[in-house]
Specification:
Length: 202
């Protein structure tokens, strides 16, 4: 079993989906944090959702630097349509969503994926640190760290809707959870629409 875990952790492909719309001010930091991850077995899908700023130029520069990038250019249709476009070309066994104005700690994927493998989990939730335009951390009401494995339906729902309360997609998922998921081509409420469907499959 340990040999299987080591091989799986090193070799497993994780797809990172980054929808982009007019993100020129944040995109370089986001993409740098992704390509420099310590877990290198990545498929990086960038969906340019009709950007009118320099986002596409930045994306094309990174595509030339790293063969793991797959770029999809489409007319603007909102984040739901961007996700649907990405799902058509996913090859990874696991999926991680990263917004174009976010960035990852450089060992984030490695640490989160290790939790998936070590615990045979369908999904791992992890934390975020909000930063304002000045680069300062925004102080929010703190939650105690939830360092636990949840493995029954009632506890999954209770944790995510009574304790965490935010239906964000800040999680690493098994790809198979997305089979037969309904996604509307809209720009608002995507997390609220997808998260309940995914939690019910865990």
């Amino acid at each position: 079993m340990e040999q299987f875990k080591k091989k799986k952790t090193a070799d497993c492909l994780i797809t990172i989906i980054i929808p982009v719309f007019n993100s020129e001010h944040y995109l370089v930091k986001c993409l740098d944090s992704v390509i420099n991850q310590t877990h290198t077995q990545l498929q990086i899908i960038i969906v340019n959702d009709g950007s009118t700023d320099s986002s596409l130029s930045i994306i094309n520069e990174y595509r030339l630097l790293d063969s793991r990038f797959l770029v999809i250019n489409k007319t603007n249709g909102g984040i739901g349509s961007a996700y649907k476009a990405a799902f058509d070309v996913i090859t990874g066994d696991y999926i991680l969503f990263v917004d174009s104005d976010d960035w990852l700690e450089l060992n984030a994927v490695e640490k989160i994926f290790k939790l998936i493998i070590d615990n045979a989990a369908d999904m791992v939730s992890f934390g975020i640190k909000p930063i304002n335009e000045k680069g300062e951390e925004i102080r929010l009401k703190n939650l105690d760290n939830i360092d636990s494995i949840i493995n029954n339906n009632s506890e999954i729902i209770k944790t995510h809707y009574e304790i965490l309360k935010h239906p964000t997609l800040v999680r690493l998922y098994k790809k198979e959870l997305f089979n037969n998921i309904i996604i509307f081509e809209q720009n608002i409420g995507i997390d609220e629409m997808l998260t309940p469907q995914l939690l019910l499959k865990c």
